[in-house]
Amino acid sequence: MATQPDVPSLDVPLSALLRVPPGPVDLGSYDCAATTGYPGEKDGVDERMTELGETLSQLQERLFANGRTYPDTAPAALLVLQGMDTSGKGGVLRHTVGMVDVQGLSVAAFKKPTPEELEHDFLWRIAKEVPEPGFLGTFDRSHYEDVLVSRVEQLAPPEEIEQRYDEINAFEAGLVARGIVVIKCFLHMSYAEQGQRLMERLERPDKHWKYNPGDVEARQKWPAYQDAYTVALERCNTVAAPWFVIPSDKKWYRNWAVAQLLAEHLQGLNLDWPAGDFDVQAEKERLSRTFETPARK
Amino acid sequence: MATQPDVPSLDVPLSALLRVPPGPVDLGSYDCAATTGYPGEKDGVDERMTELGETLSQLQERLFANGRTYPDTAPAALLVLQGMDTSGKGGVLRHTVGMVDVQGLSVAAFKKPTPEELEHDFLWRIAKEVPEPGFLGTFDRSHYEDVLVSRVEQLAPPEEIEQRYDEINAFEAGLVARGIVVIKCFLHMSYAEQGQRLMERLERPDKHWKYNPGDVEARQKWPAYQDAYTVALERCNTVAAPWFVIPSDKKWYRNWAVAQLLAEHLQGLNLDWPAGDFDVQAEKERLSRTFETPARK
Predict the structure, then answer these.
(1) Nearest CB to B94; choose among A68, A101, A287
(2) Do B202 and A284 lie within an 8 Å CB cutoff?
(3) Residue of B96, B227, B283, B297 best to disrupt the A interface, most CBs of A under 10 A
(4) What is the pLDDT of residues B256-294, one digit of tens each?
(5) In CATH, what number is assigned to the domain containing residue A51?
(6) Looking at CB atoms within 10 Å, which of A133, A244, B125, B157 has the fewest?
């Protein structure tokens, strides 16, 4: 029996509250400033995050330990982060993912495909970054860009993009079959909030490096992007790999919600510390004998 | 002029205190429990680490920002961690490296080479993990294993191992020439301390996964390993990429010392926030116009 670290329990698991129900999706019906499932007031969020970080770190260490011991068969977890510019993919990585041990993390960011990547199927570069057994992998943007920006900007023929939804579902089902828990988060931010955040980047010279004039062009196509997200959330919302919508206008809530989701999913693996494949007592005696040997030539 | 985050200043930079002087190395003359350069008492170490973590995180963000803006020419940093089992390579990753944003990290751990890796030159697998411009890369073990375990266990002919020191120096000089700051740390722990730490792993079921009976075999060859480290520290202690010896019997000191070394080296890059290649005022006006556009189709 695995004794699991306690994940702060909610009346209803956050996974159940934020999971996108099957069927049509209406992104406009979501309140991006909601704090769904968050118990109490924002005031307590620092303490709550510290506590959740401890739990997350313990759960992830168990995952890592299992990966070390069973390198071919241990499970893994994959956090997929999607959202418009400034929705907080980087913030979640820094503040939430950053709470676990870097040794067990694999962090991938998918930008505009390189010429080499474009020569291959769109999943080629993605497959290379799938986390190894025992790892928590994170995707900052992902294969979904190939049905988001590609759809809005018409970077591929419509019939090709049509096929990609099924290819994505098959790909993700394959990951799940290999023991990889897939947690797909859409960081849902309002149009007004994005405007404020982009303006802040322009107002602070230490944030200029994060600003790209192309961000405004994408903003001007906001409705088309929301439509593209809607289709992706409807067509790739499988039982094996469902979508979660994270209200992301409040950064503190967004960071907490992803942490809580991660903790719930890692706890769901129900992992124990791996037993050693050695005789503990015999090893203690063998080690004890070395204490008497002076460390000299 | 770059205004740099303040690195807590010491009377003498820690880099100068811990750097291995040119010439013969006598590892036996080092006190593994020393707290060289640490100001004040251990009691203050938590606050000091928090403060240093802030600084480190700010310095690393500047490095990352430069990498994003100048992806071909920005500098990078590489932290090489070497030391006997339990000396704390993992602890430094968790507690020191873990203080910076995971987005700008690349973490590599080198274990027993795979059959594919053995088919190539020993530097082949290393070169693949060299950090990209803007990244802080970490090596948990490294190319030095090929002159350490390979020497002690005679995994290659002596004349081949002889050649590797020069090959390593040429390789590292190449990294430095590309703008990569190389920080090589030998976590120097005493024989007695290793015995205690291995015993603790045996006594705690949640640590059994970290224990390997082979660790005791390596311990029984302690003098041979110390000799191999001595040769590596003598022959690969170049001006471009010097060695640092970190007294590592005290975990709190070890973690602080590596953090301080990292901060001093990143500060030495003297990086400013990259300027945007756009007209800030024009972008503000362009963005402002989008505020009036309702987000509708």
Answers:
(1) A101
(2) yes
(3) B283
(4) 999 999 999 999 999 999 998 899 999 999 999 999 765
(5) 3.40.50.300
(6) B157
| Contact state of B284 with A199 under an 8 Å Cβ cutoff | yes
- Average pLDDT over chain B, rounded to an integer: 95
What are phi and psi for residue B250, nearest 5 degrees? -100, 115
Determine the pLDDT at residue B12: 87
Would B297 be classed as within a structural domain? no
Residue A8 included in any domain: no
Rounded CA-CA distance A34/A44 in Å is: 17
CA distance A291 to chain B (A): 7
Whether pLDDT at B1 is above 70: no
Residue in chain A nearest B199 by alpha carbon: A284
Nearest to B206 among A68, A93, A273 (CB): A273
Please report which confidence band the pLDDT of residue A6 belongs to, taking 50, 70 and 90 as the band edges. confident
Number of folded domains that form chain A: 1
Contacts of A197 in chain B (CB under 8 A): none
- B246-276: buried (b, 16+ CB within 10 Å) or exposed (e) per residue? bbbbbbebbbbbbbbbbbbbbbbbebebbeb
Q: Is residue B82 part of a domain?
A: yes
ipTM: 0.93
Write out the two tokens for A203: 């107002």
Are A172 and A141 contacting, i.e. CB atoms less than 8 angstroms apart? no
Do B102 and A109 count as a contact with CB atoms less than 8 A apart? no
Provide the edge-to-edge strand list for the sheet that holds A76-83.
A105-109, A136-140, A76-83, A180-188, A243-247
Q: State which residues form the domain around A46.
A: 14-292
> Cα angle at A182 between A222 and B140, to 5 degrees?
105
Residue A7 lies in a domain: no
Please answer yes or no on whether B287 and A195 come within 8 Å at the CB atom: yes
CB contact under 8 A, B103 and A140: yes
User: pLDDT tens across A232-287, in order?
Assistant: 999 999 999 999 999 999 999 999 999 999 999 999 999 999 998 899 999 999 99
- DSSP track, B217-284: HHHHTHHHHHHHHHHHHHHT--SSS-EEEEE-SSHHHHHHHHHHHHHHHHHHT-PPPPPPSS-HHHHH
